[in-house]
Amino acid sequence: MAKGKAKSGRDGGQGVQLELLSPASGARATAGKASSGKAGASKAGASKAGAGKAGAGKAGAGKAGAGKAGAGKAGAGKAGAGKAGAGKTGAARAKGGAKAPAPRSRAKAPPSDEIEVAAEAETPASEAPAKPRRKATAEQMAQRQREISVSEFFAKNRHLLGFDSPTKALLTTVKEAVDNSLDACEESGILPDLTIEIRAVPGASDRFVVSVEDNGPGIVKAQVPKIFGKLLYGSKFHRLKQSRGQQGIGISAAAMYGQITTGKPVQVWTKTGKGRPAHRLEVQLDTRKNVPVVLSDTEVDLEKDHGTTVELELQADYGRGQRYLLRYVEQTVLANPHLALTFLRPGADPLVFPRASTEPPKEALEIKPHPHGVEVGTLMLMATESKYRDVRSFLQNSFSRVSGGVADEILGNAGLKRTLRTQQLADDRELAEKLRQGILDTRIMAPSTNCLSPIGDELIRQGLISFLSVVEEEAEELPQLELLEKGARRGRKKAPVKTSEEKQAELEKAAADAVPPEPGEEIIKGKKFFIVSSTRPPKVYRGNPFQVEVGLAYGGDWPQDKTIELYRFANRVPLLFQRGACGVTDAVMKTDWKKYELQQPRGALPVGPMALLVHIASVWVPFTSESKEAIAHYPELLAEIRLALQDCGRKLAAFIRKRKAAAYELKRRSIFELYIDELARSLHEITGADREKVKGDLVVLAREITGGEETDEILDRVASNPKKRRPTDEELEAEEER
Ligand SMILES: Nc1ncnc2c1ncn2[C@@H]1O[C@H](COP(=O)(O)OP(=O)(O)OP(=O)(O)O)[C@@H](O)[C@H]1O
């Protein structure tokens, strides 16, 4: 869709943008003003310029006015030569502290954020303060108190939304747009066909254009400005249904980040059906008010019947961010086998992931809240908003799994009358408390699970196989995507000194490699992986249904001494950051993997050649922050994850033990066989017994005491698979000595 689109009006957008920037970005805007000469004019002028910039930080503003060293930094850094005068003056004042105007004289100036900071700057360090400093009065403070718009807040706290570095910003932007496209396609029953494109901006190494094109239902034109130019606006927040997005802040936050860092508006192409007009809009966000501003709206020709393309320019670090992007793309494909994806990257061949399954995911339906999850305040609010006059009908119609009989039981357990009015409940906290207790004392069926769409055992297995194929193809080491762990990873590359346990493990692997695949094993790119998965029945936390799935791949050529790879997913979205803060990681660490034949340092992830996939599907995933990178430590969730892990762990342990036992018996028989000739000869010499008979008897004995038929079976399979021959004794010995 992006092809052949008209691209105009960018300059206009930039002009308007300077007016629209939030205080945080105001630094850039006012810096421009300051360099046009305002700042150098006078102290007041300098202060003003500083204050204008200050949205980014009170300190920056105050310091600029007070002339502390920091002011020079803030002012000169942003404003350039024009501002240097102001900075210098300030600096001179700061040095000659005693000569500086007294705080009182400054107090005559209109109240500003500078009062406290200025007083501090002007008290010479050598003098003990004579009197307590003058503090701001309630009235002065009142003048400064004002509403903060949600966009102002998030412009300053962009890290809360996943925009804390240019590397992460790139990934977050792609992720938000892709999540939306997948959600929209799923909701309208379309098999998604997506193109992600990252383009370098000529002449600016730190700027990139991100474009995500989908074949979804499109967006009604009137909705485009609010979706892309207003934070906290969306279709998913108020409903209970599994979806990737849930907060209504993702794509508008990405657009805001792009606007703040480049001054460019987000561009959206959209078409809602065959024969309908397509539109291209340029949208900006007025961060002071959290309202959208449409810069242009043009009707355009689009070949396809329906879909949306979102394109925005942002400050980003593609060099560092590309491997995260790659990992995100691979894992998204893993968790969404119904997705066809093309990834166009700067300076590299396009990556094309065809659809692995034409089966769309099971449709997740919207449900009502479950009574067991409702809290008193919410109960009262729901009662206030209810159109049902009596509490019995209110319960039946506002909650899931409440029949007439269950409603009666709840009221009975609460000691309330069947005729109780909903309005009474809304007004009386005590009644609400009683009702809530009645709810908790009543056994109510678990919520319906048709609001969930798990990946499913078979698709997890399929997904892991195709994912491992991609991973095995990559020559590079597979790093766990955690920025903070970079150092640790580098360390891992150093040649480790092998312990005797590791040597034993290698020996077992060598023996096991000689054997054709066991049930549950898959050969991927010539390497054997044991793959197993487990799906837990749906459960509920705070009234929200959720379901946990775990998939595990063990083996291959992965090192024995490396921490396992942990892949976390929430509603089919890979979580790439904040692994340490995530409840999933905690659950994995608190599982006793030693029971399942893996090594595990105390309080850490297990060690071994294993990749672990944990997926949580829920109508409301409890993320630790708006950036949706880590899952909160809800005990119900953690318990379910552990149960799924234990289930997979048991299957893994059975596999490893069987493999170990077979390897051990093979080795024993081989050693025994090595001495049979010698033994038969000696026995013949000592007792005169027939040498060949003794040899035959010893072979039978060796067979009996080394696993009998089971070991024979393995040997037979080896014989029928000449490529995978059993290691010779010499090889085993040599291996052991190594
Ligand atoms: N490509 C798209 N096709 C159709 N609708 C879309 C598309 N992108 C966004 N939307 C609509 O815009 C809304 C806002 O999207 P946004 O990413 O801001 O929030 P969200 O997906 O609801 O939640 P979150 O903040 O958790 O990502 C969505 O709820 C959806 O209704």
Automatic annotation (TrEMBL):
Residues 499-511 have a biased composition (Basic and acidic residues). Pfam families: HATPase_c, Topo-VIb_trans. Residues 1-143, 489-518, 712-738 are annotated as: Disordered. Residues 165-318 form the Histidine kinase/HSP90-like ATPase domain. It catalyses: ATP-dependent breakage, passage and rejoining of double-stranded DNA. Coiled coil: none annotated. This is Type 2 DNA topoisomerase 6 subunit B. The gene is top6B.
